[in-house]
Design brief:
The complex is a heterodimer of chains A (about 230) and B (about 375). With about 230 residues, chain A is of the alpha/beta class. Chain A is about 30% helix and about 30% strand. With about 375 residues, chain B is of the alpha+beta class. Chain B is built from 13 helices and 12 strands.
């Protein structure tokens, strides 16, 4: 039986937008198992990113529970959530958010900068960069890299701390389709080689078709949850 | 790579903004350092003056604002000789003149007799020696004054129509070194245009330092036109003025550094606002609130330390320049001044970083990434 990594129970999330309240999620329940390669689909405003943020400990639900490795995140004090972010998850965003003053390898290093004796992560950073084919570009600044290269750096950054789950939010959004496809291929490789659970949000059916399981959201609710054995 | 090196790299992002913030704090610290250096110089010069003159009394014309304007009848000298409490009597004639070296130098020429050597010890004359009171056309210069006029012992130069040759150069480490010259009393009488029975002041030294008050009351009760001035009183008065001045300097400098601090706070705040999504990313990747605030504080500290070092350096240069322009000014850089300026500047820079640091650390990762 597959081992559960994350479980969301009846998750709701409301935002205040001026005077009105936006119901971004309206009772979402799901379970994600280890080593899954899962995509979350849905139109704009369907709650995909909100769900990703709740599952990845970037935000807390208005109601409901999120269990990560059996720990209820809603019971963890806000100031302690960094431990989950630091040790268990990695995030990749649509805009790469590379730091312009840092080199490629330094950018990969960003999550572990505050950790003492972080030199031990150096070999990991180099290894990751060579996995994504950027070993020749370690000392380049972000403005010397193409969009696809920058996104690969961002993926390495998310993997530096050996996370259990990699969350990707519209990461092909700023890339042309060929580069986007390569990036998804890379994620698949990482999923298989590193054994990392990958959860990615996309509104592009071509991209989501590469995953083993597609969850579709509409108006803050799951409308379908399909597994396919062959992407 | 650690938080410190990350923070220092951030300072390079907006170089001009960082430079301006550094300049803001540097100018404040420069002001503190230069003014305190001059103050310390003045205080030490006054302390040296006290050592030079303490124990003496000056008898001058009542109400005269400066010894240059005082006129005392020379017959008083004979009367004072009968006073058993007085050990040394030194009549002096003060003359204000402008001498020409590289430019005009305003000096006070003091016409003295042989007894002056008992008032101010000959050991202060570093080169040459005292003249005899019967000599004419002799002069002893302060070392700074001699330097400015480009004169050495043996050389001569004119004052009014008379020629004076340098017999000695004294060094007291006080303002006197730059503004005082000693000449024989009769030469001074001619320059000051006083008659035989007139001198400017009479300086006396008591047999016993405890007898000063007796001498004071003796003079003031017998000669109503004269008053007794204690160099200590003048020194104390000057010290009091300097102490008020020191407080004023601190207030002005504090305001200047505060403005520099506001500059840092503004630069840091702008930097935090601009980097909101990046700070969101840092938090999303597991940075703690304290890691984020530390990185911002370190940036402020970096600006503060660099600014303070530059300010200290500029302050020393400014104080030295002031001394070159005003030779009578003695500057003295003390470790206390360096530490006070540095600690004050760095402390304020650190304090200026607190608000931006707290603001950055409290950002929610998700909202920050969205740039909210």
């Amino acid at each position: 039986m597959a081992r559960e990594v994350i479980r969301g129970e009846n998750l709701t999330k409301n935002y205040k937008l001026g005077e009105s309240i936006v119901h971004a999620l309206r009772g979402v329940s799901l379970q994600i198992n280890a080593n899954e390669f899962l995509s979350i689909m849905g139109p704009s405003g369907s709650g995909k990113t909100t769900l990703l943020n709740l599952l990845g400990a970037l935000d807390l639900p208005t109601s409901g529970k999120v269990f990560f490795d059996g720990v209820d995140l809603t019971q963890v004090p806000e100031r302690k959530l960094y431990e989950v972010r630091r040790k268990k998850v990695g995030f990749v965003f649509q805009h790469f958010y590379l730091i312009p003053t840092l080199t490629t390898i330094e950018n990969v290093f960003v999550p572990v900068i505050p950790i003492r004796n972080n030199t031990r992560f150096k070999s990991r950073a180099k290894e990751l960069l060579s996995t994504v084919g950027l070993e020749e570009r370690m000392n380049h600044k972000p403005n010397q890299l193409s969009g696809g290269e920058q996104q690969r750096v961002a993926i390495c950054r998310a993997l530096i701390n050996n996370p259990k789950v990699l969350f990707c939010d519209e990461i092909t959004g700023e890339l042309d389709s060929a580069t986007g496809e390569k990036i998804i291929g890379l994620l698949k490789e990482i999923n298989q080689i590193e054994g990392v659970t990958v959860v990615f949000v996309t509104h592009d059916p071509t991209v989501s078709s590469k995953s083993n399981r597609i969850i579709t959201l509409r108006d803050g609710k799951i409308t379908s949850d399909k597994s396919s054995s062959n992407p | 790579m650690n938080v410190v090196s990350y923070s220092f790299k951030n300072l390079k992002r907006r170089k001009m903004r960082t430079i301006l913030a550094i300049l803001g704090i540097a100018l404040g610290v420069m002001l503190i350092t230069s003014l305190l250096t001059v103050m310390d110089g003045l205080e030490s010069s006054i302390a040296d003056s006290l050592r030079l003159l303490s124990g003496n009394l000056i008898i001058q014309e009542k109400g005269s604002i400066d010894q240059v304007f005082s006129i005392v009848n020379a017959s008083l000298i004979e009367t004072l000789r009968s006073n058993k409490d007085i050990k040394v009597i030194s009549p002096e004639i003060y003359v204000a003149r402008s001498l020409h070296g590289d430019g005009p130098r305003f000096v006070t020429l003091i016409g003295v007799t042989d007894s002056y050597a008992e008032i101010v010890s000959p050991e202060y004359i570093k080169i040459g020696s005292y003249f005899n009171e019967t000599d004419s056309g002799k002069i002893i210069l302060g070392n700074k004054l001699a330097g400015q006029l480009g004169l050495e012992v043996g050389e001569s130069f004119p004052i009014d129509s008379a020629n004076f040759s340098v017999t000695g150069i004294f060094e007291t480490n006080t303002m006197a070194d730059a503004i005082i010259a000693l000449i024989p009393i009769e030469d001074a009488r001619v320059l000051r245009n006083l008659s035989e029975d007139q001198v400017s002041i009479i300086e006396v030294r008591p047999v016993d330092p405890d007898k000063t008050e007796e001498i004071e009351s003796y003079v003031e009760s017998n000669f109503e036109d004269y008053e007794v001035v204690f160099p200590e009183d003048l020194v104390n008065e000057a010290t009091e003025i300097l102490s008020t001045l020191r407080n004023t300097i601190w207030i002005i400098s504090a305001i200047a550094v505060l403005i520099g601090g506001i500059g840092i706070a503004n630069a840091m705040l702008m930097s935090v606002i601009e980097r909101t999504p990046e700070i969101g990313l840092l938090k999303a990747t597991g940075w703690r609130n304290i890691d984020v605030s530390n990185s911002v504080l370190i940036e402020g500290l970096g600006i503060g330390v660099i600014g303070c070092l530059i300010g200290l350096l500029l302050g020393m240069v400014a104080a030295q320049a002031a001394q070159n322009i005003i030779p009578a000014l003695t500057v003295r850089l003390t470790l206390t001044t360096i530490l006070e300026s540095f600690v004050f500047g760095v402390g304020l820079s650190l304090a200026s970083g607190v608000y931006p640091a707290v603001k950055a650390s409290r950002l929610s990762p998700m909202e920050a990434i969205r740039g909210e």
